[in-house]
Amino acid sequence: MREEKIGVIQIYAPQSGRTTEEKEHFYEMLQAAIDLFNERLKIFVIGDWNGHVGVDRVGYEDVIGVFGVGERVLDFCTLNNLKIMNTFFQHRESHKWTWYGWSNDRGEYVCRSMIDLIVCNDKRNISNVKSIPSESMDADHRLVVAKLTFKKLRSRPPPKRRRLNLVKLKEGEIKQRLNGKIADEVTTIDGECELLNVNEDEVADHWEMGEVRNDESLEITSNEVKAAIKRMKNGKSAGCDGLPAEIFKEAEETLLPYLVSMFNAAYKTATVPAEWSKALICPIFKKGDRTVCSNYREISFLPHMGKVYERILEARLRIVLKRSWVNGNMVFDQEEAPQT
Question: What was the pLDDT predicted at 195?
Answer without folding.
Answer: 40
